[in-house]
């Protein structure tokens, strides 16, 4: 018989006992009813029961115990100590999965933040240089237009300083 099976038998015996406050020496019970004499195994089971507050020892011997309210609630909820252990394992597995999921989501959010930060930097940097190029192109175009304006002013000035030959234009009209 393994520890968990013995634990189930002893805890059920104590929680299903009809006498309120009835103490039972578990060492004697195991030796007489189950023909086991492994005192270290019995001691470890009794210590765990007392530590978890599922039983309380008598004033005379720690092996003489009676069930507490918590012990009865444990058996009502889980049915046995082995079911309680299975529930703990499932709970631990869920906790581990939750921790892994939380770590993965945390890492994804960090990577996303880095990615968006770099993207923003690159776009901002690019926009800065594109704006500079636009400004340079516009300044070059302004210089070209200023040059055209200057040449047009010069042409206009040149035309206004040359006398207008009205007669030559008038004679060309009448000849035709």
The profile of the biggest β sheet is: 3 strands, antiparallel
Which regions contain 5 or more consecutive residues with pLDDT less than 50? none
Spatial sequence of strands, sheet with the most strands:
1-3-2
Q: Shape from CA axes? A: rod-shaped
Element order: H for helix, E for strand: HEHHEEHHH
The tally of beta strands, per DSSP, is: 3
Radius of gyration from the CA trace? 49 Å
User: Mean of the pLDDT scores?
Assistant: 82
Instruction: Kindly estimate the percentage of residues that lie in beta strands according to DSSP.
Output: 5-15%
Question: What is the CATH topology of the domain at 3-79?
Answer: Arc Repressor Mutant, subunit A
Helix content: over 70%
Quaternary structure annotation = single chain
Individual helix count: 6
């Amino acid at each position: 018989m393994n520890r968990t099976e013995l634990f189930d038998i002893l805890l059920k015996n104590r929680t299903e006992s009809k006498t309120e406050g009835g103490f039972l020496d578990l060492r004697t019970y195991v030796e007489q009813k189950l023909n086991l004499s492994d005192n270290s195994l019995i001691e470890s089971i009794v210590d765990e029961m007392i530590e978890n507050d599922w039983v309380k020892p008598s004033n005379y011997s720690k092996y003489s115990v009676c069930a507490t309210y918590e012990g009865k609630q444990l058996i009502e909820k889980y049915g046995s100590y082995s079911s309680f252990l299975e529930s703990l394992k499932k709970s631990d597995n869920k906790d581990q999965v939750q921790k892994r999921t939380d770590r993965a989501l945390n890492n994804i959010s960090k990577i996303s933040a880095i990615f968006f930060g770099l993207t923003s930097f690159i776009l901002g940097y690019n926009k800065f240089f594109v704006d500079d190029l636009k400004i340079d192109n516009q300044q070059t175009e302004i210089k070209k237009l200023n040059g055209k304006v200057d040449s047009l002013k010069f042409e206009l000035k040149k035309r206004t300083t040359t006398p207008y030959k009205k007669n030559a234009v008038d004679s060309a009209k009448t000849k035709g």
